[in-house]
Amino acid sequence: MITLLLGVGIIIYLLFKIIDSTDVPKIRGLPEAFGWPIFGSLFQLGTNHSLALSKLSKKLGPVFQIRLGNKRIIIANSFASIQELWIRNQSSLISRPLLHTFHTVVSSSEHFTIGTSPWDQSCKRRRKAAATALNKPAVQSYMQIIDKESYSALKDILQECQDGGKDLNVTPHLQRYALNTSLMLNYGTRFTSSYDELLKEICEVEAAISRFRSTSDNWQDYVPLLRLFPAKSNRANEYRLRRDRYLNILLDGLKQHIANETDKPCITGNILKDPTTQLNEAEIKSICLTMVSAGLDTIPANIIFGIGYLSSPHGQQIQQRAYEEIQEVYPDNDVWEKCLIEERIPYITALYKEILRYFTVIPMCLPRRSIQDIEYNGIVIPEGTLFYMNAFAGDYDEEHFEEPEKFNPERYLGDVEGTSHFAYGAGSRMCAGAHLANRELFTFFVRLITGFRILPPKDEKYMAPTDAMDANQCHTALVAEPKMFKCRFEPRNKELLMEWLDSCRQRIDNE
Ligand code: HEM
User: Fold this and answer.
1) Residue to substitute in 365, 424, 428 for testing ligand 1 pocket (most ligand atoms within 8 angstroms of CB)
2) In whole angstroms, what is the distance from residue 294 CA to residue 289 CA?
3) Carries keyword Heme (predicted)?
4) Which atom of ligand 1 is nearest the CA belonging to 298?
5) What residue ranges do the domains of the chain occupy?
6) pTM to 2 decimal places
7) What are the pLDDT digits (tens) for 287-304?
Protein backbone atom coordinates (compact mmCIF):
# COMPACT_ATOMS: atom_id res chain seq x y z
CA MET A 1 0.00 0.00 0.00
CA ILE A 2 2.76 2.38 1.03
CA THR A 3 4.64 1.57 -2.18
CA LEU A 4 1.49 2.27 -4.22
CA LEU A 5 0.94 5.62 -2.48
CA LEU A 6 4.60 6.45 -2.92
CA GLY A 7 4.36 5.53 -6.61
CA VAL A 8 1.28 7.72 -7.11
CA GLY A 9 2.98 10.52 -5.19
CA ILE A 10 6.07 10.31 -7.38
CA ILE A 11 3.95 10.26 -10.55
CA ILE A 12 1.95 13.34 -9.38
CA TYR A 13 5.20 15.10 -8.46
CA LEU A 14 6.77 14.31 -11.85
CA LEU A 15 3.62 15.40 -13.71
CA PHE A 16 3.56 18.64 -11.75
CA LYS A 17 7.25 19.19 -12.51
CA ILE A 18 6.57 18.70 -16.23
CA ILE A 19 3.55 21.04 -16.25
CA ASP A 20 5.42 23.58 -14.13
CA SER A 21 8.68 23.55 -16.15
CA THR A 22 9.78 26.39 -18.42
CA ASP A 23 11.06 26.36 -22.01
CA VAL A 24 14.38 27.84 -20.83
CA PRO A 25 15.76 27.01 -17.36
CA LYS A 26 16.12 29.78 -14.76
CA ILE A 27 18.96 32.12 -15.73
CA ARG A 28 21.56 32.41 -13.01
CA GLY A 29 22.46 35.89 -11.80
CA LEU A 30 19.44 37.70 -13.30
CA PRO A 31 16.76 38.92 -10.85
CA GLU A 32 13.45 37.08 -11.15
CA ALA A 33 9.93 38.27 -10.39
CA PHE A 34 7.87 36.14 -8.01
CA GLY A 35 5.69 33.56 -9.77
CA TRP A 36 3.10 30.94 -8.82
CA PRO A 37 3.38 27.32 -9.96
CA ILE A 38 2.02 26.70 -13.47
CA PHE A 39 0.87 30.32 -14.05
CA GLY A 40 4.10 32.08 -13.10
CA SER A 41 3.59 35.86 -12.77
CA LEU A 42 0.45 36.12 -14.93
CA PHE A 43 -1.74 37.07 -11.93
CA GLN A 44 0.60 39.84 -10.75
CA LEU A 45 0.80 41.45 -14.18
CA GLY A 46 -2.97 41.93 -14.41
CA THR A 47 -4.38 43.60 -17.52
CA ASN A 48 -1.80 46.34 -17.95
CA HIS A 49 1.52 44.53 -18.41
CA SER A 50 3.55 47.59 -19.29
CA LEU A 51 2.58 49.42 -16.10
CA ALA A 52 2.92 46.36 -13.84
CA LEU A 53 6.36 45.56 -15.27
CA SER A 54 7.50 49.19 -14.84
CA LYS A 55 6.56 48.93 -11.16
CA LEU A 56 8.41 45.62 -10.79
CA SER A 57 11.52 47.13 -12.37
CA LYS A 58 11.67 49.71 -9.54
CA LYS A 59 12.29 46.73 -7.23
CA LEU A 60 14.20 44.32 -9.46
CA GLY A 61 16.21 46.69 -11.69
CA PRO A 62 15.87 47.53 -15.40
CA VAL A 63 16.33 43.97 -16.69
CA PHE A 64 14.85 40.90 -15.04
CA GLN A 65 13.44 37.48 -15.87
CA ILE A 66 9.86 36.49 -15.42
CA ARG A 67 7.88 33.29 -15.88
CA LEU A 68 4.60 33.48 -17.74
CA GLY A 69 3.17 29.96 -17.66
CA ASN A 70 5.82 27.70 -19.16
CA LYS A 71 7.76 30.52 -20.83
CA ARG A 72 10.74 32.31 -19.38
CA ILE A 73 10.97 35.88 -20.60
CA ILE A 74 13.56 38.62 -20.28
CA ILE A 75 12.01 42.06 -19.80
CA ALA A 76 13.91 45.29 -20.52
CA ASN A 77 12.45 48.40 -18.90
CA SER A 78 14.95 51.22 -19.34
CA PHE A 79 16.20 53.22 -22.32
CA ALA A 80 19.82 52.10 -21.81
CA SER A 81 19.03 48.40 -21.36
CA ILE A 82 16.81 48.37 -24.49
CA GLN A 83 19.63 49.99 -26.45
CA GLU A 84 22.10 47.42 -25.08
CA LEU A 85 19.93 44.38 -25.85
CA TRP A 86 17.96 45.42 -28.95
CA ILE A 87 20.58 47.55 -30.74
CA ARG A 88 24.02 46.34 -29.66
CA ASN A 89 22.87 42.69 -29.80
CA GLN A 90 20.61 43.12 -32.81
CA SER A 91 21.93 40.16 -34.80
CA SER A 92 21.18 37.82 -31.87
CA LEU A 93 17.68 39.29 -31.33
CA ILE A 94 16.55 38.98 -34.94
CA SER A 95 13.84 36.34 -34.56
CA ARG A 96 10.28 36.29 -33.25
CA PRO A 97 8.55 33.57 -31.23
CA LEU A 98 5.64 31.43 -32.40
CA LEU A 99 2.68 31.96 -30.07
CA HIS A 100 -0.24 29.55 -29.87
CA THR A 101 -3.24 31.87 -30.37
CA PHE A 102 -1.87 34.02 -33.11
CA HIS A 103 0.19 31.48 -35.04
CA THR A 104 -1.87 28.34 -34.82
CA VAL A 105 -5.41 29.70 -34.50
CA VAL A 106 -5.59 33.15 -36.10
CA SER A 107 -3.05 32.56 -38.86
CA SER A 108 -3.09 28.88 -39.69
CA SER A 109 -4.61 29.24 -43.15
CA GLU A 110 -1.93 31.53 -44.59
CA HIS A 111 1.42 33.13 -43.96
CA PHE A 112 2.02 35.25 -40.87
CA THR A 113 2.66 38.95 -41.23
CA ILE A 114 6.33 39.94 -41.43
CA GLY A 115 6.15 41.31 -37.88
CA THR A 116 5.04 37.95 -36.49
CA SER A 117 7.39 35.71 -38.49
CA PRO A 118 10.38 33.92 -37.01
CA TRP A 119 13.61 34.69 -38.88
CA ASP A 120 14.22 32.38 -41.85
CA GLN A 121 14.91 32.68 -45.59
CA SER A 122 11.27 33.43 -46.40
CA CYS A 123 11.02 36.14 -43.72
CA LYS A 124 14.27 37.63 -45.00
CA ARG A 125 12.87 37.77 -48.58
CA ARG A 126 9.57 39.32 -47.42
CA ARG A 127 11.25 41.88 -45.16
CA LYS A 128 13.60 42.83 -48.00
CA ALA A 129 10.67 43.29 -50.44
CA ALA A 130 8.75 45.38 -47.87
CA ALA A 131 11.84 47.45 -46.99
CA THR A 132 12.42 48.21 -50.69
CA ALA A 133 8.78 49.21 -51.11
CA LEU A 134 9.01 51.45 -48.03
CA ASN A 135 12.40 53.15 -48.47
CA LYS A 136 12.71 56.95 -48.81
CA PRO A 137 12.52 57.25 -52.62
CA ALA A 138 9.61 54.77 -52.73
CA VAL A 139 7.72 56.68 -50.02
CA GLN A 140 8.26 59.95 -51.92
CA SER A 141 6.54 58.34 -54.90
CA TYR A 142 3.50 57.59 -52.70
CA MET A 143 3.05 61.20 -51.56
CA GLN A 144 0.23 61.72 -54.04
CA ILE A 145 -1.68 59.03 -52.12
CA ILE A 146 -1.09 60.88 -48.82
CA ASP A 147 -2.09 64.13 -50.60
CA LYS A 148 -5.41 62.62 -51.65
CA GLU A 149 -6.20 60.84 -48.39
CA SER A 150 -5.35 63.77 -46.10
CA TYR A 151 -7.42 65.98 -48.43
CA SER A 152 -10.41 63.59 -48.13
CA ALA A 153 -10.22 63.47 -44.34
CA LEU A 154 -9.83 67.24 -43.92
CA LYS A 155 -12.58 67.98 -46.45
CA ASP A 156 -14.94 65.75 -44.46
CA ILE A 157 -13.89 67.37 -41.18
CA LEU A 158 -14.61 70.81 -42.71
CA GLN A 159 -18.01 69.63 -43.91
CA GLU A 160 -18.97 68.27 -40.49
CA CYS A 161 -17.37 70.80 -38.12
CA GLN A 162 -20.04 73.56 -38.42
CA ASP A 163 -17.24 76.15 -38.33
CA GLY A 164 -16.18 75.05 -34.87
CA GLY A 165 -19.71 74.84 -33.49
CA LYS A 166 -19.98 71.05 -33.31
CA ASP A 167 -18.37 68.51 -30.98
CA LEU A 168 -16.89 65.98 -33.42
CA ASN A 169 -15.55 62.42 -33.10
CA VAL A 170 -12.83 62.20 -35.79
CA THR A 171 -12.04 58.49 -35.43
CA PRO A 172 -13.86 57.22 -38.56
CA HIS A 173 -12.12 59.80 -40.77
CA LEU A 174 -8.71 58.87 -39.48
CA GLN A 175 -9.32 55.14 -39.79
CA ARG A 176 -10.22 55.73 -43.41
CA TYR A 177 -7.11 57.95 -43.89
CA ALA A 178 -4.82 55.15 -42.69
CA LEU A 179 -6.65 52.26 -44.35
CA ASN A 180 -7.05 54.01 -47.70
CA THR A 181 -3.35 54.90 -47.72
CA SER A 182 -2.51 51.22 -47.10
CA LEU A 183 -5.05 49.97 -49.67
CA MET A 184 -3.92 52.40 -52.36
CA LEU A 185 -0.29 51.48 -51.75
CA ASN A 186 -0.99 47.79 -51.90
CA TYR A 187 -3.93 47.24 -54.18
CA GLY A 188 -4.52 50.61 -55.90
CA THR A 189 -8.03 50.76 -54.42
CA ARG A 190 -9.76 52.89 -51.75
CA PHE A 191 -12.99 53.60 -49.86
CA THR A 192 -14.93 56.73 -50.74
CA SER A 193 -16.96 56.89 -47.53
CA SER A 194 -15.74 56.76 -43.90
CA TYR A 195 -18.87 54.76 -43.10
CA ASP A 196 -18.44 51.99 -45.76
CA GLU A 197 -19.45 48.50 -44.50
CA LEU A 198 -16.26 46.75 -45.71
CA LEU A 199 -14.15 49.49 -44.13
CA LYS A 200 -15.95 48.96 -40.82
CA GLU A 201 -15.47 45.19 -41.16
CA ILE A 202 -11.71 45.53 -41.77
CA CYS A 203 -11.25 47.94 -38.84
CA GLU A 204 -13.27 45.70 -36.50
CA VAL A 205 -11.52 42.46 -37.48
CA GLU A 206 -8.01 43.94 -37.40
CA ALA A 207 -8.67 45.46 -33.95
CA ALA A 208 -9.94 42.08 -32.69
CA ILE A 209 -6.91 40.28 -34.13
CA SER A 210 -4.63 42.84 -32.53
CA ARG A 211 -6.12 41.72 -29.19
CA PHE A 212 -5.16 38.10 -29.93
CA ARG A 213 -1.56 39.31 -30.23
CA SER A 214 -1.45 41.03 -26.89
CA THR A 215 0.94 39.75 -24.22
CA SER A 216 -1.65 40.17 -21.48
CA ASP A 217 -4.88 38.79 -22.85
CA ASN A 218 -3.85 35.34 -24.09
CA TRP A 219 -3.00 33.17 -21.12
CA GLN A 220 -3.39 30.07 -23.29
CA ASP A 221 -0.15 31.14 -25.07
CA TYR A 222 1.71 30.53 -21.83
CA VAL A 223 -0.33 27.86 -20.05
CA PRO A 224 -0.92 24.93 -22.46
CA LEU A 225 -3.56 23.42 -20.14
CA LEU A 226 -5.86 26.37 -20.89
CA ARG A 227 -5.98 25.33 -24.56
CA LEU A 228 -8.34 22.58 -23.46
CA PHE A 229 -11.00 25.31 -23.13
CA PRO A 230 -11.53 26.32 -26.74
CA ALA A 231 -13.89 29.35 -26.40
CA LYS A 232 -11.14 31.81 -27.25
CA SER A 233 -9.82 29.68 -30.11
CA ASN A 234 -13.30 29.56 -31.64
CA ARG A 235 -13.52 33.34 -31.64
CA ALA A 236 -9.99 33.63 -33.09
CA ASN A 237 -10.96 31.17 -35.81
CA GLU A 238 -14.04 33.23 -36.68
CA TYR A 239 -11.93 36.38 -37.12
CA ARG A 240 -9.45 34.46 -39.24
CA LEU A 241 -12.20 33.46 -41.66
CA ARG A 242 -13.53 37.03 -41.81
CA ARG A 243 -9.99 38.33 -42.48
CA ASP A 244 -9.37 35.73 -45.22
CA ARG A 245 -12.61 36.89 -46.86
CA TYR A 246 -11.67 40.53 -47.32
CA LEU A 247 -8.04 39.79 -48.17
CA ASN A 248 -9.26 37.58 -50.99
CA ILE A 249 -11.75 40.24 -52.15
CA LEU A 250 -8.92 42.79 -52.31
CA LEU A 251 -6.38 40.53 -54.03
CA ASP A 252 -8.89 39.11 -56.53
CA GLY A 253 -10.07 42.65 -57.31
CA LEU A 254 -6.51 43.68 -58.13
CA LYS A 255 -5.92 40.58 -60.28
CA GLN A 256 -9.10 41.38 -62.17
CA HIS A 257 -7.96 44.97 -62.77
CA ILE A 258 -4.56 43.72 -63.97
CA ALA A 259 -6.30 41.35 -66.40
CA ASN A 260 -8.47 44.23 -67.68
CA GLU A 261 -5.45 46.57 -67.70
CA THR A 262 -7.35 49.01 -65.49
CA ASP A 263 -5.07 48.63 -62.43
CA LYS A 264 -3.43 51.59 -60.70
CA PRO A 265 0.32 51.37 -59.90
CA CYS A 266 0.77 49.67 -56.52
CA ILE A 267 3.19 47.47 -54.59
CA THR A 268 1.32 44.17 -55.01
CA GLY A 269 0.63 44.89 -58.67
CA ASN A 270 4.36 45.46 -59.21
CA ILE A 271 5.16 42.15 -57.54
CA LEU A 272 2.42 40.23 -59.39
CA LYS A 273 3.57 41.61 -62.73
CA ASP A 274 7.28 41.04 -62.07
CA PRO A 275 8.30 37.85 -63.94
CA THR A 276 11.55 37.63 -61.95
CA THR A 277 9.95 37.76 -58.51
CA GLN A 278 11.28 35.18 -56.05
CA LEU A 279 8.16 35.46 -53.91
CA ASN A 280 5.51 32.76 -53.96
CA GLU A 281 1.72 33.35 -53.62
CA ALA A 282 1.76 32.83 -49.82
CA GLU A 283 4.65 35.29 -49.42
CA ILE A 284 2.86 37.90 -51.54
CA LYS A 285 -0.22 37.46 -49.34
CA SER A 286 1.94 37.86 -46.24
CA ILE A 287 3.33 41.17 -47.55
CA CYS A 288 -0.19 42.39 -48.43
CA LEU A 289 -1.48 41.47 -45.00
CA THR A 290 1.47 43.21 -43.33
CA MET A 291 0.95 46.39 -45.31
CA VAL A 292 -2.79 46.49 -44.71
CA SER A 293 -2.62 45.76 -41.01
CA ALA A 294 0.64 47.50 -39.95
CA GLY A 295 -0.54 51.08 -40.29
CA LEU A 296 -4.22 50.46 -39.77
CA ASP A 297 -4.43 50.99 -36.03
CA THR A 298 -1.01 52.50 -35.28
CA ILE A 299 -1.31 55.59 -37.47
CA PRO A 300 -4.87 56.60 -36.49
CA ALA A 301 -4.05 55.93 -32.82
CA ASN A 302 -1.15 58.41 -32.96
CA ILE A 303 -3.13 61.05 -34.84
CA ILE A 304 -6.20 60.66 -32.61
CA PHE A 305 -4.17 60.79 -29.37
CA GLY A 306 -2.30 63.80 -30.82
CA ILE A 307 -5.53 65.63 -31.70
CA GLY A 308 -6.91 64.85 -28.25
CA TYR A 309 -3.83 66.38 -26.62
CA LEU A 310 -3.90 69.42 -28.92
CA SER A 311 -7.53 70.08 -27.91
CA SER A 312 -6.48 70.45 -24.23
CA PRO A 313 -5.54 73.81 -22.61
CA HIS A 314 -1.79 73.01 -22.92
CA GLY A 315 -2.45 71.83 -26.48
CA GLN A 316 -3.66 75.35 -27.40
CA GLN A 317 -0.16 76.75 -26.70
CA ILE A 318 1.45 73.94 -28.71
CA GLN A 319 -0.87 74.54 -31.68
CA GLN A 320 -0.12 78.26 -31.61
CA ARG A 321 3.64 77.66 -31.60
CA ALA A 322 3.28 75.04 -34.36
CA TYR A 323 1.21 77.43 -36.47
CA GLU A 324 3.74 80.26 -36.05
CA GLU A 325 6.65 77.97 -36.93
CA ILE A 326 4.86 76.82 -40.09
CA GLN A 327 4.14 80.45 -41.07
CA GLU A 328 7.77 81.35 -40.55
CA VAL A 329 9.05 78.66 -42.93
CA TYR A 330 6.20 79.10 -45.45
CA PRO A 331 4.96 82.71 -45.36
CA ASP A 332 3.40 82.39 -48.86
CA ASN A 333 0.59 79.99 -47.99
CA ASP A 334 2.07 77.18 -50.07
CA VAL A 335 2.69 74.73 -47.22
CA TRP A 336 -0.07 72.29 -48.25
CA GLU A 337 1.86 71.57 -51.44
CA LYS A 338 5.39 71.91 -50.04
CA CYS A 339 4.78 69.44 -47.21
CA LEU A 340 4.43 66.72 -49.85
CA ILE A 341 7.97 67.17 -51.12
CA GLU A 342 9.94 68.16 -48.03
CA GLU A 343 9.93 67.93 -44.24
CA ARG A 344 11.36 71.30 -43.29
CA ILE A 345 9.45 72.41 -40.18
CA PRO A 346 11.48 71.16 -37.17
CA TYR A 347 8.70 71.93 -34.68
CA ILE A 348 6.18 69.69 -36.51
CA THR A 349 8.78 66.91 -36.72
CA ALA A 350 9.36 67.39 -32.98
CA LEU A 351 5.59 67.38 -32.37
CA TYR A 352 4.98 64.02 -34.06
CA LYS A 353 8.07 62.50 -32.40
CA GLU A 354 6.73 63.61 -29.02
CA ILE A 355 3.31 62.13 -29.85
CA LEU A 356 5.03 58.85 -30.79
CA ARG A 357 7.02 58.85 -27.53
CA TYR A 358 4.34 60.10 -25.17
CA PHE A 359 1.65 57.68 -26.32
CA THR A 360 3.96 54.75 -27.37
CA VAL A 361 1.01 52.98 -28.96
CA ILE A 362 2.61 49.50 -28.87
CA PRO A 363 3.65 49.69 -25.21
CA MET A 364 5.11 46.16 -25.08
CA CYS A 365 6.56 46.32 -28.64
CA LEU A 366 6.53 42.99 -30.55
CA PRO A 367 8.22 40.00 -28.92
CA ARG A 368 11.64 38.73 -29.95
CA ARG A 369 13.41 35.37 -29.64
CA SER A 370 17.20 35.17 -29.46
CA ILE A 371 19.06 33.00 -31.97
CA GLN A 372 22.41 33.15 -30.13
CA ASP A 373 23.54 33.39 -26.52
CA ILE A 374 23.61 37.00 -25.31
CA GLU A 375 25.94 38.26 -22.60
CA TYR A 376 24.39 40.98 -20.47
CA ASN A 377 26.37 42.43 -17.55
CA GLY A 378 28.38 39.21 -17.33
CA ILE A 379 25.24 37.01 -17.34
CA VAL A 380 24.76 34.56 -20.21
CA ILE A 381 21.19 34.47 -21.55
CA PRO A 382 20.87 31.30 -23.66
CA GLU A 383 19.80 31.14 -27.29
CA GLY A 384 16.05 30.54 -27.73
CA THR A 385 14.98 32.89 -24.88
CA LEU A 386 12.03 35.27 -25.30
CA PHE A 387 12.67 39.00 -24.93
CA TYR A 388 9.94 41.60 -24.30
CA MET A 389 10.71 45.30 -24.65
CA ASN A 390 8.70 47.47 -22.28
CA ALA A 391 8.84 50.30 -24.82
CA PHE A 392 6.53 52.50 -22.75
CA ALA A 393 8.90 52.25 -19.76
CA GLY A 394 11.89 53.03 -22.01
CA ASP A 395 10.10 56.08 -23.37
CA TYR A 396 9.31 57.31 -19.84
CA ASP A 397 12.79 56.62 -18.43
CA GLU A 398 13.82 59.54 -16.21
CA GLU A 399 17.50 58.69 -16.66
CA HIS A 400 17.14 59.45 -20.35
CA PHE A 401 14.33 62.00 -20.71
CA GLU A 402 13.93 65.18 -18.69
CA GLU A 403 10.46 65.20 -17.11
CA PRO A 404 9.17 62.31 -19.25
CA GLU A 405 5.62 62.71 -17.86
CA LYS A 406 5.35 66.11 -19.55
CA PHE A 407 4.23 66.42 -23.17
CA ASN A 408 6.96 68.62 -24.56
CA PRO A 409 7.85 68.63 -28.29
CA GLU A 410 10.79 70.93 -27.52
CA ARG A 411 12.77 67.95 -26.24
CA TYR A 412 13.22 66.99 -29.91
CA LEU A 413 14.39 70.40 -31.14
CA GLY A 414 18.09 71.12 -31.78
CA ASP A 415 20.74 68.41 -32.03
CA VAL A 416 19.09 65.18 -30.97
CA GLU A 417 21.28 62.28 -31.98
CA GLY A 418 20.58 58.56 -31.99
CA THR A 419 17.34 56.79 -31.10
CA SER A 420 14.54 59.26 -30.35
CA HIS A 421 12.08 56.80 -28.79
CA PHE A 422 10.99 53.17 -28.99
CA ALA A 423 7.56 53.67 -30.54
CA TYR A 424 8.90 51.90 -33.66
CA GLY A 425 10.86 49.33 -31.66
CA ALA A 426 14.61 49.12 -32.30
CA GLY A 427 17.37 47.13 -34.00
CA SER A 428 17.23 44.44 -36.64
CA ARG A 429 13.44 43.99 -36.69
CA MET A 430 12.51 47.63 -36.10
CA CYS A 431 9.38 48.92 -37.89
CA ALA A 432 9.99 48.81 -41.65
CA GLY A 433 7.26 51.42 -42.24
CA ALA A 434 8.65 54.13 -39.93
CA HIS A 435 9.52 56.50 -42.75
CA LEU A 436 6.10 56.18 -44.40
CA ALA A 437 4.39 56.58 -41.02
CA ASN A 438 6.46 59.72 -40.27
CA ARG A 439 5.46 61.23 -43.61
CA GLU A 440 1.80 60.45 -42.96
CA LEU A 441 1.97 62.06 -39.51
CA PHE A 442 3.91 65.11 -40.71
CA THR A 443 1.61 65.84 -43.66
CA PHE A 444 -1.54 65.36 -41.64
CA PHE A 445 -0.50 67.61 -38.73
CA VAL A 446 0.86 70.36 -41.03
CA ARG A 447 -2.42 70.49 -42.94
CA LEU A 448 -4.63 70.12 -39.89
CA ILE A 449 -2.88 72.85 -37.89
CA THR A 450 -2.74 75.32 -40.79
CA GLY A 451 -6.38 74.63 -41.62
CA PHE A 452 -8.04 74.52 -38.19
CA ARG A 453 -7.86 75.53 -34.55
CA ILE A 454 -8.54 72.38 -32.52
CA LEU A 455 -10.71 73.40 -29.59
CA PRO A 456 -12.05 71.57 -26.53
CA PRO A 457 -15.60 70.23 -26.84
CA LYS A 458 -18.55 72.33 -25.68
CA ASP A 459 -19.80 69.39 -23.66
CA GLU A 460 -17.13 68.75 -21.02
CA LYS A 461 -17.97 65.07 -20.70
CA TYR A 462 -16.31 64.53 -24.12
CA MET A 463 -13.00 66.17 -23.08
CA ALA A 464 -10.00 64.08 -24.20
CA PRO A 465 -7.88 62.58 -21.41
CA THR A 466 -4.29 63.82 -21.77
CA ASP A 467 -2.45 61.23 -19.69
CA ALA A 468 -1.26 58.46 -22.02
CA MET A 469 -2.38 55.59 -19.78
CA ASP A 470 -5.79 57.22 -19.10
CA ALA A 471 -6.34 57.93 -22.77
CA ASN A 472 -6.06 54.23 -23.70
CA GLN A 473 -9.37 52.36 -23.40
CA CYS A 474 -7.92 48.85 -23.83
CA HIS A 475 -4.66 47.97 -22.10
CA THR A 476 -4.93 44.32 -23.08
CA ALA A 477 -4.75 45.06 -26.84
CA LEU A 478 -1.40 45.03 -28.62
CA VAL A 479 -1.98 48.56 -29.94
CA ALA A 480 -3.41 51.25 -27.64
CA GLU A 481 -6.99 52.23 -28.47
CA PRO A 482 -7.92 55.88 -27.87
CA LYS A 483 -10.92 56.41 -25.59
CA MET A 484 -13.72 58.13 -27.47
CA PHE A 485 -13.58 61.92 -27.09
CA LYS A 486 -14.84 64.85 -29.08
CA CYS A 487 -13.38 68.21 -29.96
CA ARG A 488 -14.17 71.16 -32.20
CA PHE A 489 -12.46 72.19 -35.44
CA GLU A 490 -12.64 75.88 -36.23
CA PRO A 491 -11.30 76.89 -39.67
CA ARG A 492 -8.53 79.49 -39.20
CA ASN A 493 -9.31 81.09 -42.54
CA LYS A 494 -12.14 79.34 -44.33
CA GLU A 495 -11.54 80.99 -47.69
CA LEU A 496 -7.88 79.99 -47.73
CA LEU A 497 -8.72 76.48 -46.50
CA MET A 498 -11.22 76.05 -49.34
CA GLU A 499 -8.55 77.24 -51.80
CA TRP A 500 -6.08 74.64 -50.48
CA LEU A 501 -8.70 71.90 -50.64
CA ASP A 502 -9.67 73.00 -54.13
CA SER A 503 -6.12 72.86 -55.43
CA CYS A 504 -5.75 69.36 -53.90
CA ARG A 505 -8.93 68.30 -55.68
CA GLN A 506 -7.67 69.64 -59.01
CA ARG A 507 -4.35 67.80 -58.57
CA ILE A 508 -6.25 64.58 -57.79
CA ASP A 509 -8.62 65.01 -60.76
CA ASN A 510 -5.64 65.46 -63.08
CA GLU A 511 -3.96 62.21 -61.97
C1 HEM B 1 2.83 55.21 -36.34
C2 HEM B 1 2.71 54.07 -36.99
C3 HEM B 1 3.48 52.82 -36.67
C4 HEM B 1 4.00 52.38 -35.48
C5 HEM B 1 3.93 53.07 -34.12
C6 HEM B 1 4.65 51.10 -35.74
C7 HEM B 1 5.30 50.35 -34.76
C8 HEM B 1 5.94 49.14 -35.02
C9 HEM B 1 6.63 48.36 -34.02
C10 HEM B 1 6.75 48.72 -32.53
C11 HEM B 1 7.13 47.26 -34.64
C12 HEM B 1 7.99 46.16 -33.98
C13 HEM B 1 9.45 46.57 -34.01
C14 HEM B 1 10.40 45.74 -33.20
O15 HEM B 1 10.19 44.56 -32.94
O16 HEM B 1 11.45 46.29 -32.82
C17 HEM B 1 6.75 47.33 -36.04
C18 HEM B 1 7.07 46.39 -36.99
C19 HEM B 1 6.76 46.53 -38.33
N20 HEM B 1 6.10 47.57 -38.94
FE21 HEM B 1 5.39 49.22 -38.03
N22 HEM B 1 4.51 50.80 -37.06
C23 HEM B 1 3.80 51.81 -37.68
C24 HEM B 1 3.44 51.89 -39.01
C25 HEM B 1 3.81 51.00 -39.98
C26 HEM B 1 3.44 51.10 -41.38
C27 HEM B 1 2.62 52.23 -42.00
C28 HEM B 1 3.99 50.02 -42.01
C29 HEM B 1 3.92 49.62 -43.46
C30 HEM B 1 3.00 49.93 -44.30
C31 HEM B 1 4.70 49.25 -41.01
C32 HEM B 1 5.38 48.08 -41.26
C33 HEM B 1 6.00 47.31 -40.29
C34 HEM B 1 6.64 46.04 -40.58
C35 HEM B 1 6.79 45.38 -41.95
C36 HEM B 1 7.11 45.55 -39.34
C37 HEM B 1 7.79 44.22 -39.08
C38 HEM B 1 9.28 44.34 -39.06
C39 HEM B 1 9.93 42.98 -38.82
O40 HEM B 1 9.42 42.18 -38.05
O41 HEM B 1 10.96 42.75 -39.44
N42 HEM B 1 4.56 49.87 -39.79
N43 HEM B 1 6.03 48.50 -36.24
Assistant:
1) 424
2) 8
3) yes
4) 2
5) 2-509
6) 0.92
7) 888 888 888 889 999 999
